[in-house]
Amino acid sequence: MSDSCLRPLTPIQLQQVIDANPFSTWMQLRVHRIDERGLELRLPSRPEMLGTEALRRLHGGIISSLIDVACGYAALCISGRGVSTVNLQTDFHRAASLGELRIEGSVLHQGGRLWTAQARVTCCAGILLASGRSTLYMSRDVHPVLAPESLAGALSGVHHQR
Q1: 42 is in which domain, residue-wise?
Q2: What is the crossing angle of helices 60-79 and 11-19, to 10°?
Q3: How far apart, in whole angstroms, are the C-alpha atoms of residue 125 and residue 116?
Q4: Distance, CA of 150 to chain centre
Q5: Helix (H, G, I), strand (E, B) or coil at 142
Q6: Helix (H, G, I), strand (E, B) or coil at 10
Q7: In total, how many domains does the chain have?
Q8: CA dihedral in degrees (82, 139, 4, 156; nearest 10)?
Q9: Any idea what the CATH number is for the domain that residue 22 is in?
């Protein structure tokens, strides 16, 4: 289904998209805010996310994934369309320890099919842990979870891990 009209997502709609994504569900991402500045997601880090157990530091791949999903979901919030990452850059500023993480994402540039977004990962004290940006390929189609036929109950069969 194609839709050229950009329409912002509500936090409930974005949470439905997140809950339909197995990886985002495994990470236990929760929508905290969507507004004109972008979005904020939160998640509780867990021991299985550690890369260096002796130092109690999160694996860098988890942090990069958070940059990736925040950029993608920021674009999806504006467009409602499917999004794929073309390029991802992550800068690590401090080691991330166990605890709640806050991830902010916003769109920097809306091109035709290529958009650019940025993201920041902070700890609950607001200390910057990582930042990054992504080039995103925007589908012409509405995200499958947001398509009218999906909204009628397609999520009823999705298993949610809590």
Answers
A1: 11-150
A2: 130
A3: 27
A4: 20
A5: strand
A6: coil
A7: 1
A8: -30
A9: 3.10.129.10
What's the token pair of residue 61?
């791949």
CA atoms within 13 A on the CB side of 126: 0
In 3D space, the residue among 110, 114, 119 whose CA is nearest the CA of residue 84 turns out to be 114
130: helix, strand or coil: strand
What's the pLDDT tens digit per position in 30-47?
A: 999 999 899 999 999 999
User: In this structure, what token pair is assigned to residue 63?
Assistant: 């942090």
Return d(Cα 71, Cα 120) in angstroms, integer: 9
Whether 1 maps to a domain, the answer reads no
- Do residues 105 and 115 make contact, with C-beta atoms less than 8 angstroms apart? no
Task: Give pLDDT, residue 150.
Answer: 57
Return the DSSP state at 125: T
Domain annotation covers residue 17:
yes
Residue 4 pLDDT class (50, 70, 90 cuts)? very low
Residue 34 corresponds to which tokens in the numbers above?
């969507």
- The answer to the question of residue 160 being in a domain is no
Q: Is residue 96 part of a domain?
A: yes
Q: What is the pLDDT of residues 77-118, one digit of tens each?
A: 999 999 999 999 999 999 999 999 999 999 999 999 999 999
Residue-by-residue DSSP string for 91-122: EE-S--BSSEEEEEEEEEEE-SSEEEEEEEEE
